[in-house]
Amino acid sequence: MGGASTLLRMHVLARFPNAGWPESQSPSRLFRNRVLPCLLGWLVVGSSGCMVGPDPTAPTSVSPDAWHAELVEGVSRERVDPGAWWKRFDDPMLVELIAIAEQKNLDLRTAASRIREARSLYGIAAADLYPQISAAGEADFVKGNRSSSEFPGIERENFYSAGLDFGWEIDLWGKVRRSMQSAEFNVLAEIEYSRDMLITVRAEVARSYVEGRSLQGQIRALQSTIEAQAETLSLARKQYRQGVVTDFSVLQAEAQLQAAQAKLPSLQYELATAVNRLSVLIAEPAGPLSARFAASAEEFGVPQPPISIAVGIPADVIRRRPDIRAAERKLGAAAANIGVAEAALFPSLKLSGQGGYSSTDFNKLIEPGNFGGLFGVQINWPLFTAGRLRSVVDVRNEQALQALLSYESTVLNAIADVETALVAYGSSLQEQSRLGEAASSFDRATTLATERLAQGVSDLESLLNLERELLAVQQQLAVVNGQVASNAVGLYKALGGSWNIEENTLDVTAAAGTAGDAG
To answer: pTM to 2 decimals?
Structure first.
């Protein structure tokens, strides 16, 4: 309110010249209603007797009863099964790569470091709840002469002292405990952020792996088509020599083969890019991984998702997604900070003291007669701060409101993520099914056209058109096979990753050891 604080408002004095203070804000009423009860509470139950500010509570959110997107075959409304979703793709290499990423990924190690940092910050906040004691010692050596000494006849006089300093600000209004509360919520938020990062890294490893296998499938399909088109070109040349077809048909077959061969380098480049991205995620050199990828190309294709994926209901996602839980923890920290700011409006009580021994004779330093000390009690009440303290409270309230809005936004985005992932996965499943049927039909038609051309029943142009269509469908099918697996990964990620909380928690100690080994 203008330039005055909560405890002393100058414009209020002007408006109430007789009373001086509005009744609801008078010092006597403030003392009776707020200060005295907390003082009595502190005397009865100790320093935990009173905390100003709101108590952090879990926010409530409204979610739909069911998903809006239509669930296609392969998706069920059953409760999501707990456990490691990546193991359901039945691909040992994928499982191994994710395990390596969990141990070596640099982003995960950074997240583990942030957890340890947050825990240390909590320790710093908690330390203010207790007395601070320090020890000090002093030894002074003085040397002079009889003629120049300030005290004639004294050539040497030493001084020794040893003692303790003591200081303790009593947490009357919960300022320290609210700070601890805020720090604890921040620790919990960092843990949830690390879980979210862990889910993201697993999903990115799976997606990069799927993309690499998909590109290998596209390369195999292209190479198979190139071999078939090379045979067609050979047949066209043979028929040209026999006078069955014109040179135009031969040139057309050559152009179609060259066009297919031209697509190979770009696919190989995309494959190298996917493998390099995967090597960054697992923090290992790309060379050995690329060689291993190539060696296992025939053994492992695009990993196939399980027959059915259970998605549960929206309320399950709100409870399980770590980004939502992190936003909730941040809201709790913001609410606790309001109490920290409000506690600054009230009187503070600080106890201080010093005590120790002093003597000019070191051998007699620790004697009862050489002991001395002092004890003090300091009370500080900010009567006028020109509105600064009240503005701090307002800032904390606005920050709490922002945290609440951020939480609500996170919930809405989470629901939208799942809805989008459901549509993407369902669409790719339908496209995969139809492209598979089309590829099968084109393959049979191409085989028949090749046989008819060899018998002289069909023309070369029909075969070339069928081969061109078959290549396009096979390439698109290889892409869609990868999209189905990738969209399944995206759906699992949107649902909150592994629903086993233990599998979604970083081993902070292990991460610290790994970082230490890295130097």
So the answer is: 0.79
